[in-house]
Structure prediction request, 675 residues.
Amino acid sequence: MKFVKLFEPLKLRNTEIRNRIIMPAMALNFSPDRTVNDKTIDFYEERSKGGVGLIILGGCGVEDRGSGPTMLSIADDKYIPGYTKFAERVHKHGAKTIVQLYHAGAYSGMPGMVSSSAVMSNLTRRVPEELSIEEIKIVQENHALAAERARKAGFDGVELLGSAGYLINQFLSPNTNKRTDEYGGSLENRLRYPLELIKLVKDRVGKDITVGMRVAGDDFVPGSNTYKESAVFAKHYDDAGIDYINVTGGWHETRIPQLPMMVPPAAYVYLADNIKENLNAPVFSANRINDPILAERILRNEWADGICFGRGLIADPYLPNKAKENKLWDIKKCLACNQGCFDHIFTGRSVECLRNYQASREGKFDLDQKTKTPMKVVIVGSGPGGLEAARVATILGHKVTILEKKEKIGGQVNAAFIPPGRNEMQEIIKYYKAQIKHRNIDLQLNTEASLEKINALEPDVVIFATGIKFTIPDIPGIDGSLGSTLYFADDVLTGDYHVGKNVVVVGGSATGMETALWVADLGALDSEIARFISIYDLIPREEIFSKWLRGNRNVTIIEKLPKIGLNLGRTSRGFMIGHSMKMGIKTITGANITKFEGKTVEFELEGEKNSIDNIDTFILATGVQPNTDLYDSVMASNPSYKIYRVGDCNDKKKDKRNMMDAIHEGYQTAYNLDK
Ligand SMILES: Cc1cc2nc3c(=O)[nH]c(=O)nc-3n(C[C@H](O)[C@H](O)[C@H](O)COP(=O)(O)O)c2cc1C
Prediction:
């Protein structure tokens, strides 16, 4: 693959960045005292070493009432030294630096929070104070002072925050701006606050440093601004001399998914393309762009001038250099799982990354330091935890053999990527396949591990990554149904069984919900066929649309807990529920199944007996437990070698397990083998 555009320098008025790869602002929750501390600097220095063109730091609060208690602050001169150190260390490796000036208005949830009007925020459920005209000037002045601090610290620019529903949006939106003075009412009036802000900040620092604006490409909030108004706003910003426009998606309160895996890669590039027409300033595109080849395509299509890789650069700080050196096989692509980043932020924890154990631990691990005591390592099982252990152990100089009883690697991931919106999970398998190939790791497929087999390999260390096994709930009639009308979710997803017209999924956890969505899609018109039929007008468009949108199965989820999706992260659960409803999936919660009989399932609901008849297929998405069978027998044999467990098979770990735990344990175990 030749990158014609991605590595072209980009000029942002007086700042030239070395390529088109931008790391957008991401609140990392690294700094309890709100200073730019060493952890933050180490994190970004690594990304600068990795070849990114521009790093946008932040959001950095310009006022305490408009910011979060653990967000970076630039509201006082005392913060300048941290920023200075940041700029020096990041510049050393070639990336340019911009501070995002953050004011969340009614989204801050802080005491004394302010907004354009005293309208209750749909995010914080609280009513802000309306800014008087004098106070508007103070807020604007605080932005200008912050911009001067950024300049003083040696930053190359500042970014104003006109996206995600923050203060600028609160002025722009008729939903939140109910003012009757010159800052409210008409579109021109609602634009007054951001246009004055641009002028003020540019007057104060614009001769020396870049002043950009992040915009919501569409608020995706009923009654608020759409992509149409967004293009108008951008044109005004351009006319006011803004140096770049960084286009993202909707407000935080939107019901339209912005960041989870279910959003297809590059889904929101059209928002940048929509704004770019007739603009002088370069336009960046953001959200779900995780692949340099995709980024190159966006640039070649002239949909945008710069590409934001947010989570993509958390997952792999060296993505730019690896792309440049054509080592695409070695890039850890962001899965948009949100397990370590967004879900952590929403629960008050620091950002981590499922794919990259080193993210947030920069400088603490050095895979270039090879082991002085190479060991023979046998890994049993090739799920994500085992594969990560194999990768890290091999890089460190150990000799690894993976034993996998199936004909392919990946373990549970092979079923996990099948449901709609989960395709990105395949990246895990692709990545580790490439690692095995390029690093010459000994992989023995179709090889069931046993005590004898392991002993014959004479290992120094054995790492068990044997995952889970399914358990059959103790429900009358289940044995008779298993294999005739009732199947395990993973077996159905991997295509081993026919799924009939009327389907009940037993269990409404993540697996149950994803399986139900997959079933609801069965029988839908394939996209390519829908296009073909449309081109030749073979059937009416509405019919094509409805046949394409959903399949021909009737799906019901039965869950014993009061809610479904309780093991999903906060950033995915609501969207998954919304998606299920749109697909017509019925859910029955708080139901205790009492019997399976032929095509009928009986259950108790609120003390009453209920049943559903005429079910063709039951799918079991309940009951898994750590698979420790082989581990137990090897331990019982009193082996001479060291033994570890990683991931789901580790029944010592009682906490909630997920793929991030498995991969991180794989890394830690392999890294510490000789320690
Ligand atoms: C943990 C986290 C924190 C974020 N914080 C901010 C922020 O403070 N300001 C902002 O404009 N965007 C913020 N974003 C949005 C990102 O800048 C980016 O638009 C988003 O992650 C989508 O891009 P991606 O798919 O490349 O990650 C944040 C995203 C994440 C994951």
In short: The domain at 8-337 is CATH 3.20.20.70 (TIM Barrel).
